Write a sequence for this structure.
C-alpha cells in the first residue's frame, strides 16, 4: 500500500521503517534534504521529496498522507497547504498527539472538500519499531478499513494492539486518557522507589527489586521493565535533572474529567507533581516557611548569599 509520510522525526521515521519492512511503499516528505537522509539510507526502497506537490504526484489514488508532526498550529498550517492538493476520497491521517476537539474540527473541515480524516492516537515511542505500536483509531469506518493493512503492519500483531474506537476525535480522546493513566502509573512507581531509596538502613538495591517485581508481581509491566533498565545504568540518577515535562495530554485529561464531573485525583495530582518539578524558585514553599515562622516562630532555612 502507498503512503505519504510527513514528519520524519524519531517516531515518524521509525514508523516509516516498520512499514517499509512490512512491504509498503513509503514516500517521505521533508522541507530539507537532510530530513530524508535516514529514511533513504535504509535501502528499503523508500522515496523522498522536498515539495508537497511532488509527494502527491507520487501517490496512487486514493492517496493516504500520514502526519507525524507536533500538535496544534503546525497541523492546521500543514492542512492548509496540503488539502488543496488532494482529491476526493483521499485520506489524511493525524498520528500525533492532537487535542481530540481539534481532530473533530479538522475532520469536518476536510470533509467539506470530499476528503477523509482519521485520527490515530499512537503509543509505542522509540520502541515501536521493534515491538509494534498501539493505535487508537477514530474516523469514518470506510477510511479505517482502507488503512487496515497499515495498522496491521504497525501494530504488535494483525489482530492486537490497535482498533477502531469510534468516530472522528475518538482516537485522540482515548490516547488522551491513556496518557493521563500513564501519568498516574509513573508517579506511583517513582514515589515507591523514592521511599525505598530513602530507607538507608536496608541498603536496598533498587535495580534488584525492580527485577524481582518484573516476574509474577501484580505490578509487572512494560513501564517497570523500562524502570529496571534505567536503574541498571544508574541507581542514584545523579546526572538526571529533577525536571519532568508533559505533552499536554495529562492536562486535557484533567480538564475533561472536570467537564464530565468525574473525580480523577490520581491523574490530577500526578500532573501537579510534574508542574512542581519545574518550579526552580518554589515561591509557594518559601511562603509556607515564612508562614510557619510568623505564627509559631519556627526556624526557616536561608538561601546562601
Amino acid at each position: 500500500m502507498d503512503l505519504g509520510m510527513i514528519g520524519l522525526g524519531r517516531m515518524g521515521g521509525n514508523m516509516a521503517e516498520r512499514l517499509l519492512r512490512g512491504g509498503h511503499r513509503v514516500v517521505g516528505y521533508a522541507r530539507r534534504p537532510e530530513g530524508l537522509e535516514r529514511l533513504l539510507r535504509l535501502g528499503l526502497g523508500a522515496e523522498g521529496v522536498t515539495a508537497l506537490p511532488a509527494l502527491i504526484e507520487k501517490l496512487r489514488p486514493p492517496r493516504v498522507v500520514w502526519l507525524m508532526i507536533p500538535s496544534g498550529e503546525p497541523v492546521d498550517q500543514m492542512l492548509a497547504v496540503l488539502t488543496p492538493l488532494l482529491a476526493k476520497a483521499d485520506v489524511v491521517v493525524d498520528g500525533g498527539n492532537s487535542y481530540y476537539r481539534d481532530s473533530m474540527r479538522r475532520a469536518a473541515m476536510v470533509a467539506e472538500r470530499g476528503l477523509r480524516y482519521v485520527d490515530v492516537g499512537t503509543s509505542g515511542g522509540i520502541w515501536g519499531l521493534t515491538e509494534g505500536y498501539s493505535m487508537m483509531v477514530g474516523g469514518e469506518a470506510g477510511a479505517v478499513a482502507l488503512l487496515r493493512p497499515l495498522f496491521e503492519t504497525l501494530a504488535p500483531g494483525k489482530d492486537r494492539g490497535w482498533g477502531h474506537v469510534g468516530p472522528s476525535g475518538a482516537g485522540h480522546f482515548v490516547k488522551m486518557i491513556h496518557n493521563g493513566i500513564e501519568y498516574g502509573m509513573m508517579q506511583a512507581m517513582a514515589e515507591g522507589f523514592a521511599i525505598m531509596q530513602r530507607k538507608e538502613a536496608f541498603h536496598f538495591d533498587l535495580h534488584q527489586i525492580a527485577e524481582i517485581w518484573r516476574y509474577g508481581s501484580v505490578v509487572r509491566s512494560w513501564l517497570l521493565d523500562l524502570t529496571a533498565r534505567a536503574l541498571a545504568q544508574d541507581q542514584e540518577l545523579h546526572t538526571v535533572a529533577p525536571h519532568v515535562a508533559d505533552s499536554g495530554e495529562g492536562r486535557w485529561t484533567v480538564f475533561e474529567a472536570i467537564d464530565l464531573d468525574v473525580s480523577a485525583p490520581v491523574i490530577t495530582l500526578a500532573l501537579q507533581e510534574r508542574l512542581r518539578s519545574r518550579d526552580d524558585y518554589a515561591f509557594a514553599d518559601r511562603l509556607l516557611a515564612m508562614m510557619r515562622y510568623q505564627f509559631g516562630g519556627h526556624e526557616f532555612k536561608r538561601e546562601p548569599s
